[in-house]
Amino acid sequence: MSGDVERVFPPDVDEAWERLTDDPEVRGVGAARIDETGGWQVTVWVMEFVRQDPLETEIRRRIGAALRAVEGVISADEEDREVWFVTGTPSGRDLTEAAARVVDELADEARAIMDTL
């Protein structure tokens, strides 16, 4: 996995983690816990740009599976184009790392699509 996952402190969230990378459009991932909503929002930046199948479907399927496999996760569902909502008691670091592994595995394919935009 390229890039370290570190805790960050944005306003209006109870806890947040972000992957630090020099390639954020392709490898950027973050998780934010907002206690008011009862879960985590996991954001995968590349999904803002990848809108072509089969890659779009593959990333969505694999991100969902990776998040559901994290210890403590009860559910992981798509909330928006690039955001998954996760419930349970997982760590933000673990969620961020799980999503980052998927992004890394598919980074070359994603970059090829983004280069055509």
Task: Provide a descriptive summary of the structure in words.
- The chain has 117 residues and is an alpha+beta fold.
- It has one domain (4-114): 2-Layer Sandwich (Gyrase A, domain 2), CATH 3.30.1360.
- The chain has helices spanning 24-27, 55-68, 92-105, 107-114, and strands spanning 4-8, 15-20, 29-34, 39-44, 73-80, 83-88.
- The chain has a six-stranded antiparallel β-sheet with strand order 1-2-3-4-6-5, covered by helices on one side.
- Helix 2 runs antiparallel to helix 3.
- It starts with a strand and ends with a helix.
- The model has no long low-confidence stretch (mean pLDDT 93).
What keywords describe this structure?
single chain, 117 residues, Gyrase A, domain 2, 4 helices
Helix content estimate: 25-40%
Summed up, the helix count is 4
Which strand order spans the largest sheet, edge to edge or round the barrel?
1-2-3-4-6-5
Largest sheet geometry: 6 strands, antiparallel
User: What string gives the helices and strands in order?
Assistant: EEHEEHEEHH
| CATH fold group | Gyrase A, domain 2
What is the 3D shape? globular
Distance between the termini: 25 Å
CATH class: Alpha Beta
Number of strands: 6
